[in-house]
Amino acid sequence: MDEIVYHNRYTGENEIEKVYGDKALRWTYGSVAGRISLSLLVKRAAFSHWYGWRMDQPQTKAKIAPFVEEFGLDATEFACDVDDFANFNEFFSRQLHPEARPIDASNDSVVFPADGRHLCIPDLSRSSGLFVKGETFDISTLLKGDALANRYANGSLLLSRLCPTDYHRFHFPFAGTPGESRLINGPLYSVNPIALCQNIHILSTNKRCITQLQTESLGTVLLLEIGATCVGSIRQTYTAQHPVTKGDEKGYFRFGGSSTMVLFEPGRVQFDADLIENSAQNRELYARMGDRMATVVA
């Protein structure tokens, strides 16, 4: 795969992603030696746990300021000063000032659950592929069960890909009452398009968490967090069975790129036009948590 091009909702332009660890990623998924190392080591949880531990060490604090500068992050959004982070992992899972991510206030809006690059599938039964035409993942494998998969087979899906440079807390896209999070163990392949273009099934087999959100107007919404290479862990910060409002924090990822998914029952939502248009071209849309991604179908 060549350069990764996405559409920026805020500039209205197509932009080229600056990939953190680009050379290592292309070597791992694009060479024989890299694929051998992937099979023997990189995809395994122990490697990602070790990398997460490494990013907890005090000396990694020195990486933060150069990282902020290189990737043009807006430090005024951070809830604390750059110098106050104890290590890189603490910076990676940083909180932001609430005003940095305003939540769309419309009663009928559904918001993006995370900062990132997003793709939607309005009808899973008619999907023509993700990243590669004709290639999509198996929803039964994703949800680890045919009964739940059948319920959403004709439903809608939002996939949100978080880069290492993004804000790495994820939030509830709509008000409701969440149940317990269910962990499904699996490998930890990269979720970058460079990897997904070679194996889209990564999305349905990687380590993942599933939460059912009971809502008044959207039925049961499925919320998934998907781990990836070098993700130290997925942390849930919400309380099960306690009502949440749109935009409330659900949890966060420790170091590494990662993804979230939101699945809706059939006919429940209408995705925004720019999201649909770009997804139809297998081009991700960059948008931030709290902005509208869909409206409730009356």
UniProtKB/TrEMBL annotation:
The protein's annotated pathway: Phospholipid metabolism; phosphatidylethanolamine biosynthesis; Lipid metabolism
One Gene Ontology molecular-function label: phosphatidylserine decarboxylase activity
Any Pfam family the entry gives: PS_Dcarbxylase
Enzyme class of the recorded protein, top EC level: lyase
Recorded superkingdom: Bacteria
Cofactors, names only: pyruvate
EC nos: 4.1.1.65
Keywords: Decarboxylase, Lipid biosynthesis, Lipid metabolism, Lyase, Phospholipid biosynthesis, Phospholipid metabolism, Pyruvate, Zymogen
Protein name: phosphatidylserine decarboxylase
